[in-house]
Fold each of these.
Amino acid sequence: MPAICLITALPSEARPLIKHFRLSAVGHKHLRLYQAVAGPGNANQHAITLYLLQCGVGKLNAAADTAAMLQLLPSVDAVINVGIAGCERPLGETIIAHCVQDNASSRQWYPHLPSSKLVGNAVSVQVQTVDTPADNYTHDTAFDMEASGIVHAASKVLDLAFIHCVKVVSDNGQSSIERITSESVAQHVSNSIPVLETLMAALPFDSQPNLADIQALSQTLQARIHFSSTEQHTLNQLLQRHKALLGQLPDETSLLQHATAKSLRQHLVAELDNANIAY
Amino acid sequence: MDTIYIEREVMSLPRTQAMLDKYPKARHVTVERYTDVFNAPGQNFRVQKSNPALILAKKHGNRVLPTPPDYHIGGQNNYYFSHMLNCIYDCRYCFLQGMYRSANYVVFVNYEDFFEDIQTTSNNNTEPSWFFSGYDCDSLALEPMTYFMEQCLAAFDSMPNAWLEIRTKSTQIRNLTSRKPIDNCVVAYSLSPENIARTEEHKTPSLAKRIKALKLLQDHGWKIGLRFDPLLKAENSQQLYSTLFEQVFAEIDASLVHSVSLGPFRLPKPFFKKMIRLYPDSALLSASMSVRDNMVSYDENTEANLINFCESQLLNEYISSEQYFPCVSVS
């Protein structure tokens, strides 16, 4: 079951999401983390595990909390930054980042966006992360204060097809940053939920190989037989090859009859050496 | 095409604009250099392959490069060039999966620079020079969008000392059949047994369609080449390849075939390791392999048996030794 973590900076950004997705606090000592199992489902209607992290304002908070969350929850497959941004577009418009740039370092990331057929008509722009609020608005760049920190930290662990930013316009040339209130933020984020759900449903989890059964069998064998780190790696490779070549995993009961990792490896290698593909 | 990245330098070129017009609904993202997107870390080739983006860029330098030593069809001077990186097809054995971080398609729009470099390279040799297209991409698959080959043929028409090989699996041959063939060009099709093509060469035209395209090209007077590459082992390899040769030569006039080559399945070890990580569920990549000179391939006996069988079938039944070039290798 894929796991997605939404990341917001402000409590007022988090609140509508917590309410909509019926999240509850995890009760972590340092992280403001919430969790739910259920809900939106991805494109193939698989259930997902949903988390929300409220990281605080600024890219350093964002990077530090994202890294800590991914350390705590290694099962997280995707992160989506949700929050407000300044852009010369209508207030409340929801936009997706096709590029995230850190203003201070000029470093850029290009999230691999899902097909536009799957994410509807959501507009995509560059999101530029600034250290202090900016008001030199343009229609093709949105200013925020966290995205580059989140993408920087998350890209150490996740592929760029699974790191996204959904922003909602909170200020522009006609409505300055001073007019933002916690109520307007909550309202804007609430309005962005349909786009967010569409994006979550379009994440390409199904294009990744499913190794869950291989990992489960490997764990079972490692619980009964001692494997060094190298032997564990070899075991996983052999199990993968077995499934790919012979169409199924080897019989668990017969594997558990081996007393040592070496004997088990020799058995699998012999079986695979004799395997042939027929087209 | 959902997303098109465009280098700022080529944004205003008519050719760029013509390509953008083909995809009116695509998102446009301006970039400084194509490498910012294409070579960025943290990309997943397999995920991107299901929804690749297009990148329009300018190729600066290194446009014409010498081929590896055994990549030739009899010429002394051999070069390759790639107006495009990556391929719209998804062949499980393809080395591009191991070579590039990204599955996005890069199209270099400065065609004239390629033609100029080809001309200069050709002029530097007194013997004829061979230029191979289709090394880092399929030469024809995106022709309805790029029109590269149409213009490339016009360029080669005025370079009699330069020979062009168009390597392809595509049936997009309208730009060839609608014009007069040129003497210094060979259109070479990569062919695999039908069942292998269906299983391992995803999104490609069927064997029957490729043979039909070959026949059409031959009937129009084009020189054609046959590339049985890579040769894949199977329980029933001999039957598969015998049937393939029968099917091909039942339609094609063997005496008029310019060249036939065989290519063993070989991949640089780092590419193979990356491909296994991307496709642990691939039976082809999970088969027993051996490593020789940092190249992953079938063991020597298996490889030799496969090549010898195909070679003897071809030479005994269909073609002359002058038409045959043993190992033009690029998986």
Amino acid sequence: MKKPKLLWLQSITCNGNAHSFFNHPELFSILSHFELLYHPLLDTEYILEEVIKTQLACDVLILEGSFREKGMLKGGVELSTVVEVYAQKAKHIITAGTCATFGGVFKEADPKNITGFAFDIKEKTKRHELYFSKLISLPGCPIHPKWLSFVLLMLAKEKDIVLDDMFRPQELYGITVHTGCSRNEYFEWKVDTKGFGLKEGCLFYEQGCQGPHTRGSCNKILWNDASSKTIVGTPCFGCTEPDFPKTALYMTQTNMGIPTTMPLGVPKRAYLTATGIAKSFKIKRFEERIIKYDG
Amino acid sequence: MMVKKLIEKVEGEAELDFSFKNNKIDDVTIKFGFYRGIENILTGKPPRDALVITPRVCGICNHAHLIASVRAIEDGYRSVGMKVNLTNKANDIREFTLACELIQNHVKWFYLIILPQLEKLLDQQGEENHALKASYLSSTITKALAIFAGQWPHSSYAVPGGVTCDPTYVDVMQAESLVDESIKFFEQIMVGVKIDDILAMDSVLDLPKIGGDLGKVLLLLGSSGMAEMGKSHDRFIVFGECLCFKIGKSIPTQVSTIDTNYVKEERQKGSMAKSVTYKNRLFEVGSLARGMIAKEPMVKALHKRYKDSTLTRIFARVYEMGLLISYSKQLLKRLNLQEESCTFKANNRPMDFEGVGVVEAARGSLIHKTTVKDGLITNYEIIVPTQWNLSNGNGEEQGVSTKAMRGATSVEEASFIFRTFDVCSVCTTQ
């Protein structure tokens, strides 16, 4: 069987998605299922000057970075026209990262002209209609290496990936970042952390954690096979969401002491009832340090 | 005669215009195409948002941007009289994760750029997949980083007063084991001698002892005459007080102190990158500069014989990997987990301040400046290492890398010299 041809193109980006994926421990066995036409870090069959002539065949197109119709040139050629040709040829288009999917950080530099490939934050761009049958969205700033490898291997093995209404694989984005967080007990009993630098306490109430309303499996499939933001006490900044980045990221936005954004799908009344009961108990274990070093 | 060349896979692309005289390269103009406007994006945001936004300048040195931006805020807090004292633990954890990122950078540059490009240049290509080695060590060492910082790329775990993590000895042991794995890789694959032995070298006569892939590169450089090429101004500067580095500037005869107020940025015609000078003079930054200013014996010995050539530049960077791996092991050993991770608990954060944060990133000194009024950023400036090394000069003097390329006999030779500086297109144009 002939291997599918894989083309990785970059637009307005920091290269973080390419570097994130480069750290995948099985990088080369995953790529061995494909004929790699072009990649921003690896030595490939073609050089960029050949790619931008748009003569190559392409089965799987990976897009990294946000888009603008005019003014983003590669080797003197308008990149949007190059992308358009390969998008038509490809059987699958993967938008790798939040920039390529929704616009991301760089959109803020020129909100009118910079967008994601098929979405402008949540709005559909004109490309949405042209390519919706081929799209797979993998938002995240950066992309999680294991999420991309899952999609690539499913495609290589010609298996169906179940997507949601924004073309995100449900297996990866059907849960929230909160799922599997090592601080879950503190969330359940509404015990907030006493500040940064502690393994105890939940970051949702004051430190700005968006884990409960952010789609992604960061705490199920750990980062660098090791950890995640919330495990190390950093709030989740909602980097997989269409409106990333919001502002005042290290503070929870509250109204009368109640977080403005509810956990995903949870009605405010249900949240208030549950937390009202939870916080009426004082549970000794959750007030103490987990490890008590001598001295 | 003029020749244009698109240099790709340098964290984006760079366009070089070469002009030849008597069959040798006489001058080069370097152009970087796209400006993303990170500094403008930060305007109007609360100061700590910079800890999340600035790592997105660069996918390969994001962590250095995080550390520079947290230092800028801490400097600003201090400047208005707030006490920000980090514990040794917090300081050492930051140093450790920064060291991991530098190691990750160095190994990628060596295996994705230097070794394959040199083999290509000299028509000595083999079947070996060098990228596999880069990926192996990069994923090993960034895993150690992520144990403390949560993830790589794009962690935001350094906050004013310390770090957000609260590691256990289980974490420290896992990180130590990953560092040990990196030492094994460095010794057996990269340099062919024990890490302590390479760090103890102090004479050109020691060079033949080096084996591994560095040994291979040194042989190729020596046998092709490339070893002597790529010389530039022979002036170095280091601003970042961190890791095992010393700050200062050096000209061939002496090392002296520096002040960031003399750093000046200027726009360049036809390029989105700004050039930067110190007292109107150009300086090289990066591993070679750090080795020269810290007076590392082996770097000094090579410099004495080869000056600031490709050989000294490449050696200094691989040698620095050894320094950093061994330093990171010491850091983990001395961590006292009973100390606080973050000492800054004040709810009343200052609303108006100006701060400067400086750090040594893989490619050299990185400077962040933040100005905050009424609790929001009004101005943010980022000066990156590659602006020093890859500028087109200031009219009076040629740029550092352009001068190094001068005299090369082909575009291919010059492109290799250019890459010894480790080009980072996305940083250069932010």
